[in-house]
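Exam revision sheet. Question 4 asks you to relate a sequence to its structure. Input first:
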Amino acid sequence: MSDRLEISVILSGLSMLYGEDLEGMVETARLADEAGIDQIVVTDHLAIGSRTDRYPYGKFPFANEEPWPEPLTTLAAMAGATSRVRLGTGVLIVPLRPALLLAKTLATLDVISGGRVDLGIGTGWQREEFAAAGVPFVGRTARMEDTLRACRVLWRDAPASFESETVSFQDVWCLPRPLQPDGIPLWIGGGLTEGNLRRLVELGAGWMPVAPDLDELRQGREKIGTALVEAGRQPDSVGIRGALGPVRGEKGPDMERTLAQLGPLQDAGATVASFALAAFVRKREQIPAFFEKLGAAAGR
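Answer key, structure tokens:
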């Protein structure tokens, strides 16, 4: 892992920033690329049901009418408009995608982007979304794990074979392979549960807790490091993404005070600082100035 704290921006509040002109997301990625932002992240929902009160992380922050462009399609468009910024999901709801299709789509995206894809993964929380996709909600965690293991086999072997309760195939060629030597880096979203810790050790390149405080990051870093050593992996081989919210001033976000949190965030164990775009800007024309400040903070 790099000693420098990397900067990641999550595209959120799309209706507020872009209205119906969602092509502006691609322009935003180009601006991030030019400003020296390390990563641009796109979120995922195939559909939104009426029971957003079941959202497990507090009040669901968006209206049902909020658009959710398909992440991998969006990142492919961004790949063509950029040259260095990494392209991530945060998170992709893996159990909603067939393993073969997901492996092929991600490998293709990695190839056309020059090896710049990061896959943030999660299981999803909406029963209605799974029902609409014709996918069982129960058992989604096991299907996610099987899908990710299958993807890694497909990225490594040709021909590839895999057998599990939910995914199986024999002697298939699924090319191209990702450009990144070990396949697409997998970032595990959510709290550091026993299951997520196990997935991090087996499959993970990074951990993405939801709105962590510094104590959670410190404790998580220690637990992850210990588990990695016990499994024979290097203790610093897993990154940690810490979210930074805006410190409010009289006229909106105080960027100087907000960016002063970067040092403590890194000291607590974060390797990536994450900023939700809509928490800091309310109008599309404010994005370049915001990115300029983030790029400067990143040392670009």
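Marking note for examiners. The chain has a mean pLDDT of 95.
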